[in-house]
Amino acid sequence: MSGLALGLVGNICLAFLFYPVTRGSSILKLIGLTSESSIKYHIWLGHITMIIFTSHGLCYIIFWATTHQISQMLKWDKILISNLAGEIALLSGLAMWMTSIPRIRRKIFELFFYTHQLYIVFVVFFVFHVGFSYASIMLPGFYLFLIDRFLRFLQSQQRIRLVSAQILPCETVELNFSKSPGLSYSPTSIVFVNLPAISRMQWHPFTVTSSESLDPEKLSVVIKSEGSWSQKLYQMLSSPSPIDHLDVSIEGPYGPASTHFTRHDKLVLVSGGSGITPFISIIRDLLSQASTGKNSPRILLICAFKKSKDLTMLDLILPVSGSSTLDLSHFQIQIEAYVTRETESTTSNQDFLPAIWFKPNPADAPVSAVLGPKTLLWLAAIIASSFTLFLVLIGILTRYYIYPIDHNTNMIYSTSWRSALNMLFICISIALTSTAVFLRNKKVYTKETKQIQDLQTPTPMASPGSWFYNADRELESLPRQSFVQATKVHYGERPNLKKIVLLESEGCSSVGVLVSGPRRMRQEVARICASGLIDNLHFESMSFSW
């Protein structure tokens, strides 16, 4: 009875397990969550579910062992509960659970990632264990996850047009993709990037650094050369004979439905290293708002780097094209840059490599929303039509195949086969309706895509250079000159975050403090904001991908 009770409670937890990992679902946006911020709920639910299901399994094993019924472990009943299927589901769940331990996940991420694909085995044998009718308690969440996963699969099969790449001296690459004007996203959004030339299996998340309003036809990401995948990309692009075309696939973008940065009088942005990447999109978005006459908060950007060559990441704040037309009269920004391991600058402008412009391929497409601008409407249409199709298919199966066996013979149709056919029809229904909607939206974008591909972008003869390291030269635009004057570099020291935050909060009714960087930096600023010394601080720790 204890084991049975634990199983019932575990099923309730399992019913909510898949909601947080539906990246592209509008359900998350409706409750104010993003795909990144909701992961913690999936982790919590996963721990609770596996603790309960492990206890559930141990209760039955102990009972069978003490009552000399250990052979029950191998029982696969045709009609009732299948014990063997439950044990297979539990073992696959334990494998996912053990490899999700933070130390293993961080050090051997590929082991965690590929082991987590056992969720398919877990779900299939869980359904075999309890039967499809009882497993329907988790159907809403898993059904939404299946739709989201298949739509992401369809989006990932497209090749995206890579327009250009900018190589920075700090072994950092900015990739610029062609974007459909109908695609909308918010600052701090992320995309998953796949490069078949490096690995067909690996998908890496990166923060979008472009602004939807400032870069209407471009989507940019910044990639720091840290791991083996990013190092191979940097070597490919920085080689003496760089390639003229690169196949790229993208999933996303995923991000918040809206941002609340303009509600503050001042924004204090604290970043460490490549943690500056989400702030680039925030500053660009606020810059665009200020140039159109809208109210924009004052910005203090505190960025810490290890070496002076990392300062070149500040060049990415302003886009190369279109910055000369911006009106900065209503935009107030101050940049305090700290170089912690050097006492003077060691980088010159000659370290810059020329931008790489890739040849367009007719088969490539711009980045676009998988369901178009009316995502919620099309998602609802897919859910309704696919479930209706599933009910029709299962009704035909039951009436003309299962019913005659159950009622016209002495046989009773196998519960396992009934469950297998139900799962098959769910997959068929989702695949048919999702593909139809995806192809319909792809057709709408066809004309738009051709217009973008027909544009011949001239290849510049030289790199745009660095406005920071070449500040004495004749600057090409007033916005860049303003940014040079607003930047102050401190060599050989670390920022006194407590002093800076307390000083900047004086005289302001509302100060937003955003932190993106190493864990130690996030914890330090969180302690300052939670100390109670200042009442007008609003703290937010941001996740970033680079």
Automatic annotation (TrEMBL):
UniProt KW Nucleus keyword: no
Highest taxon, organism lineage: Eukaryota
TM annotation in the entry: 6-22, 43-67, 79-99, 376-400, 420-439
CDD domains: NOX_Duox_like_FAD_NADP
Record's keyword terms, sorted: Electron transport, FAD, Flavoprotein, Ion transport, Iron, Membrane, Metal-binding, Oxidoreductase, Transmembrane, Transmembrane helix, Transport
Cofactor(s) required for function per UniProt: FAD
Catalytic activity: 2 a Fe(II)-siderophore + NAD(+) + H(+) = 2 a Fe(III)-siderophore + NADH
InterPro entries named in the record: FAD-bd_8, FAD-bd_FR_type, Fe3_Rdtase_TM_dom, Fe_red_NAD-bd_6, FNR_nucleotide-bd, RBOH/FRE
The FAD-binding FR-type domain, residue ranges: 155-260
Record carries keyword Heme: no
Entry GO MF terms: ferric-chelate reductase (NADH) activity; metal ion binding
EC number annotated for this UniProt entry: 1.16.1.7
Annotated membrane topology: Multi-pass membrane protein
Family from the record: Belongs to the ferric reductase (FRE) family.
The protein's name in its UniProt record: ferric-chelate reductase (NADH)
Taxonomic source organism: Acer negundo
